Amino acid sequence: MTKILTMAKYSFKENISNKIFNGIVVFGGILIFATMLLDELALYEGVEVIRDTGLFFTEFMVMFIVVYLSATCVLKAIKEKSIYLVLTKGVGKEEYLSGTLLGMIYTIFFNVFLMGIVLSGLIWKMGGSLDLDLLISFLFIGLKLSLLSAVGIMFSVVSESYVTAILFTISTYIAGHGLLELKEVAQKVKGTAFEVILNILYTVLPKFHLLNYRDYLGDVHINLWLLVGYMVVYVTAMLFIATASFSKKRL
């Protein structure tokens, strides 16, 4: 466990020192500030427009950070040979991947926290209230992107190029939000091979729609324990696939 925590700390420092990471964070902050302009365009509910748009930009910009960092971390470490230094110090491959994922989760919540402070400050300045719904929204953004980071790390291990890993990770993010529509299509093509394929995709792809913060601004109720259990199982499955592939990878 100590090795995993040490690896997580190392991964976190590497992530926040990345120039692309810093560029996206700054750009995300600028976009959130730009939402103040929407107050002039909204005839009613100006604060709600700023809140919803700011939450969208928070998830959108942090998603880009997650995709880039998680889908390239292992490939980059192998290419730059920095992984050899870590593995020769007694860190196993499973511990390396677990620590890298934990470091990514630190990075995600660090980013959500920073952008959350900026957005909360704007809402407060515009006369809005900082309620529990806003905090829940930030929490679910962090949880959703933590799940995506596990997918990205898995693709970083099984892929041979940055482009492939990034494209698969982005595709999974998009597909994971459309699973309900996928299920509806499957019901319309019953009795065909296409239905089998769609049902497999529905089962395998991460159910990001369950972590859609917009749903929790209304009167939607879910079983949080069941959701947490699903996340733990899915992240464990991603780590298992990544570790099995990594153990066979020639470094």
What is the number of beta strands? 0
Q: Estimate the helix proportion, in percent.
A: over 70%
The main β sheet shows up as: none
Count, helices: 11
Distance between the termini: 24 Å
The mean pLDDT is 80
Strand content: under 5%
Structural class: mainly alpha
Overall shape: globular
Low-confidence runs: none
- H and E string: HHHHHHHHHHH
Q: What gyration radius follows from the Cα positions, in whole Å?
A: 20 Å
Describe this structure in words.
The chain is mainly alpha-helical and 251 residues long. It has 11 helices and no strands. It has helices at 2-16, 19-34, 38-41, 46-79, 82-87, 93-125, 132-158, 162-176, 179-188, 193-204, 224-248. Helix 2 runs antiparallel to helix 4, helix 7 (132-158) packs parallel to helix 11 and helix 9 packs antiparallel against helix 10. The longest helix has 34 residues, at 46-79. The protein is globular. It starts with a helix and ends with a helix. 35% of the residues are buried.
